[in-house]
Specification:
This protein has helices at 13-26, 40-50, 70-84, 102-114, 128-134, 156-165, 184-193, 197-207, 219-226, 235-242; strands at 6-7, 30-32, 58-63, 89-94, 118-124, 144-148, 168-172, 211-212. By secondary structure, the protein is of the alpha/beta class. The longest helix is centred in the first third of the chain and has 15 residues, at 70-84. The two termini are 30 Å apart.
Length: 259
């Protein structure tokens, strides 16, 4: 799985299809969508239009909350494959840790994986509490845990919980929808590296071996977000950026409400 990909949240119709096509033309090879986003069909159309070899593109989608549960998850996987026009999905994920259904949902993902129908399985919004809860009941370790994560929400406990289990942490909304681009500490770091605040946030994640999926439908922004492979952030500066943490949850939705 590439460390950098395109997040497709909140894109619909032609906007979603065009964004994915543009991203693939730029060089993105990880595309992240979800049943809840309502754009799996458009992602599939973009893949068909660009025509890259299937093995070169990594596609992630997620189970809609309304489809959670063992049997309904198995059915939902088939629906997503059909909408994406794919024979298999590279990474299939539990979207939120719903209290009454998350165990059955995970068991269904394990079956899909053991049956060879999906290349990898993972979870989203699983803070340390949910990973610990899953430990005694899982047969297979989640390969990826996608959570809100940034220097301004630097949950070291979560990062260590993933690392100790061999789980790749993946950051959603890593750019905080631009809400902290005017932070003077971030601007100073961007100036030091002759990069934009967005590029610093993306590179910070990559240099921590955190996968990241910034969303944009703008060709300019898509190129900017992908132009992060010609530099790295020094260890000293990574530590400095780590200290930007304010426990700032941009989305306002704390996964612990599902505890």
């Amino acid at each position: 799985m590439p460390l950098l990909g395109l997040g497709c949240w909140d894109m619909r119709g032609d906007e979603a299809q065009h964004a994915v096509e543009t991203a693939l033309q730029i060089g993105y090879r990880l595309i992240d969508t979800a049943s809840m986003y309502g754009n799996e069909k458009e992602v599939g159309l973009a893949l068909s239009q660009i025509g890259l070899p299937r093995a070169e593109v990594f596609i992630t989608t997620k189970i809609h909350n309304s489809d959670q549960g063992y049997e309904s998850t198995l059915k939902a996987y088939d629906v997503s494959c059909n909408l994406l026009n794919l024979d298999f999905i590279d990474l299939y994920m539990v979207h939120w840790p719903l209290k009454d259904t998350r165990t059955g949902t995970w068991k269904a993902l394990e079956k899909l994986y053991l049956d060879g129908r999906v290349r990898a399985i993972g979870v989203c919004n699983y803070l340390s509490y949910f990973l610990e809860e899953l430990d005694p009941i899982r047969e297979i370790m989640p390969m990826v845990n996608q959570c809100e994560f940034s220097p301004f929400l630097y949950d070291l406990t979560l990062l260590q919980a993933c690392q100790s289990r061999g789980i790749v942490l993946q950051a959603w909304s890593p750019l905080l929808r631009g809400l902290r681009f005017n932070d003077q500490k971030l601007i100073s770091m961007a100036t030091q590296y002759s990069k934009t605040p967005a590029q610093i946030l993306i590179r910070w994640a990559i240099d921590h071996n955190i996968s990241t999926i910034p969303k944009s439908s703008s060709q300019h922004r898509l190129k900017e977000n992908f132009d992060v492979f010609d530099f790295s952030i020094s260890e000293e500066d990574l530590v400095t950026i780590d200290k930007f943490n304010e426990n700032y949850r941009m989305s306002g939705e704390d996964p612990m409400k599902y505890k």
